[in-house]
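Re: beginner question about structure tokens

> Can someone show what the tokenized structure looks like for a real chain? I only ever see the sequence side.

Sure, here's an example I had lying around. Input first:
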Amino acid sequence: MRTNPHILEINIRAWLARLQQRHGRRFALHEIPEEYWQTFKERGFDAIWLMGVWKQSPKAGEIARQHPDIQAEIRRVEPNFSTEDIIASPYAVYAYETAEDLGGDESLKALREKLNAMGMALFLDFVSNHTAIDCPFVTSDPDLYINTGTQIPHAHKDWFFQNANGTWVAHGRDPYFAPWTDTAQLNYFNPKTRDFVLHNLLKVADMCDGVRCDMAMLSLNKVHRDTWWEFIGGELPRTEFWTEALSLVRGKYPDFTFIAEVYWGLEWEIQEMGFDYTYDKVLYDRLRFSNSEDIKGHLGAEHLFQMRSIRFTSNHDEEEALKAFGREKSLAASTIIATLPGARMIYLFQMLGRPARLPIQYVKDFFPIDDEIRNYYAKLMHIASQPAFHGGQWSLTPVSAVGEDDDSFRHILCWTWKQMNTAFTILINYSPADAKGFLKLKPAQGDGKFLKEEFSGVQHLFTPDMQQKGFEVELKPFESKIFTYEI
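And the corresponding structure tokens:
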């Protein structure tokens, strides 16, 4: 897989529902027409992350169909929805087996072989913090989970449920939110639990080329203790689970890729445990809520941290980019993440122009494709697939004022990729007003040297005067330009 890979996230059940609507038949994973995978390959994607392949939890599906918040969220977008189209959350994992209605493990294996033959990796989800509420082990081996036996919990009774044998088992939870009532919380202070999770992780690693680890920081010793100290005590295990897990998996699969969903400033700590990429939620928040100066500040972080960050402007958890950012700003933000160091993640429905997010439990997400949005992403991903963006040297590039009274240049984000004799300079006006500035470039000298703007295809003759004084650029609100030239 290339440096700075492009990763496409697909909500597999929602996408298969769209394919069924279009083709008039259901597809198992290996039956998905090759034209779709070929298109993704041509778009420049190095890996496909399929979200939702695991065996569905019957109880989690029942909870989702009855959940008033899920229904309300769907109703805002699809007022006439049917509860029959609500399924279990992909993150309430019943078992790490490919769902039979998707073709089972053999279908997944065939799809992986097809993707690998096309030069793309297959990534899947791994949920370390919890299982589905009705996972068979909740009843057969409750000590894998945080529980209080048959005694009613002495505190936070609402965090618990009773299994079939009357044992009080905790729901999975994030310390800042209410419990996920379709899940059961694993106990990482029990060595037996760690062995159980490691067994499942090795099983998954045999089925794919990498995993996206859901809420990875919840399995850190200190986080786990601080979330559950009333029930597990405060003495920390001697080792971190992820340190052990990554070492074990890579001993068997040296090239396996680990991606961590992680927040709360714990990204670097997780990276040091060996994760290839960690979520860059800080950049997402700055792109959505802050200005260009704050974004520049974040991009000044240590280079290794940048290289191990995974950037995004949409995923299944966040509001759809078009709604969260607005149309023009969403495209500018996506141009930023697609041209920075690190992994670049695009959500399939984002690339097709979905206007608003629906819960991942709702499968009939039949929004019309926005051709303008789709064409922009096709062009962007083609540009960002050029070799310089994957094997070149990246650096921030200064932009200066055109005049003393014009500070609009401060809204322009600019950086350059250089590889051998080729350079790409990216400029994004990340503001709702026009902006202009002077840009000093150092292209190769000689007659007939041009700067080519990649989005428009327009070529600019690079004159000696431009070499000396600088190249003046003007950008409309949230406009992006990418210049290619010889160096």
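Each token stands for a local structural state, so reading them left to right follows the chain. The first strand starts at residue 6 and ends at 11.
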